[in-house]
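Reference record:
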Amino acid sequence: MQSKAASARVLLARLLQEVVVAESRLRNSQAAQILATNEQLVLTAIRHQTEAEVSARMVAKLSHSAEFDALTQLPNRVLMQDRCAQALALAKRHGRRLALLFVDLNNFKQINDSLGHAVGDEALKTMAHRLVAGVRDTDTVSRHGGDEFVILLTEVTQAHDAGRIANALIESLAAPSRIGEQVMRLTASIGIAIYPDDGADLNTLLNCADVAMYTARRQGLGCVAFFDSQAAASPFAQTTVPEAAGPTTVQALQDPVSRHADAVVDQQRHHAELREANEKLVLAALSAQELQAAAERAHRQQAEFLALVTHELANPLAPIRLAAAMLGQIHSAEPLLPRAQSIIEDQVENMARLVSAMQEVSQAGKLAFNLKRQTVDLVPIVDAAVAACRPAMDARLQAFTIQLPDRPVLMKGEAARLEQVVSNLLDNASQYTPDQGQIGLALRVEGEAAELSVSDSGIGISALALPTIFEPFAPDIPAIGLRAVGLGIGLTVVRALVEAHGGTVFARSAGTGRGSQFIVSLPLSTQQ
């Protein structure tokens, strides 16, 4: 009996163990199924979330492409219309003004035609960036199409404020930029329409700004004009708006593109030709006595830099003669001593001849100018000088602005010499202005005289050098080392030629590092 009971207990234990194992297996199987199910749910949720994010990005991209220009990333017409509608509603509610500017890049087709659309696209992106940088964050710059842009200026207090901003944009666009091997110098025409003066809705304001843009284009490249209803009524009328008129662009700036390497070569060639012309004119027109006196003054100004050298080299002729005489008195069989004596004596004679020649030159008489006077127009003369000096400014990426009257400026004079005056002033401004600096030229009529001014943002003129800036061989100390300095006669030529034409010239500068301005006044012809 005990044996049977023991066997039964063993069997029962085995059965219980099998049941436990079976239950464990069942639980593990269910857990695995639950885990697999959970994993599938998680993967499905992640997949759906990823798809949702991709869809959201696609929707955002489509929305952005529907509202922004693909090339410049500026708002397109659709977004501009929406922002204008909101701005007009706010302006109407609060009784405020706003302005709409229509911007057209001048001669941009030349870039696409000559250099290709890839370069043109880079130029458009550069101009778009400058337009955005020139307005406030609350304003909107949009690409209207091609090389045209529309700018919304909100909260404009006075109409002339819009003109001031437009002129600043013209100046910013005109700054040269280098794209690859090309130097771009672009201009623009800008038309301005004011709410509520010129219209109460977007379409009317846009049409008015477009009409004003064509008015600005007729005035010349790089100009700004406000909408004028009377001018718009006449297809032949041309309206000039003094408070928003931009600089007139001469023929020399019509081409918006120049190759940088060619500009460097042309700059070097022109500078050499101009220097040669100046030197010839100085030799022909200024007395040797004046040149000698000026050279001596320049030498005295540099005396403090050469004090040690002059101490060692003072009176060289007498010591050399004495040494030669002493060598001649030595009775030696050494054959080199007579040879040394001969060399020293020859050099003394050469130096003596040079001194004698200089003295003869210093006694030469003064030659007079022989100007071939006739009635000339200063506007094309300035144009020719700008064309000659543009390579230098392009090579140095210097911004250049020019303002010319809209009528001929007549005077009696020689065109070639007057062009030399303007070229010398522009070359001087470019030479002493750092790269990417600013140069400006303005020609205006003041009473019975023509006033030409050339200004720059360059190294300036010290107070010590200003009184003698037109003297030959008198460079200002800060100018030494900036670039290769010539003989220092360019400004001397300017003064001589201006005075020969019955005019005057003077220089202004607030000091070293603060730029300079040269102003020429020439008598006008009675045939104006």
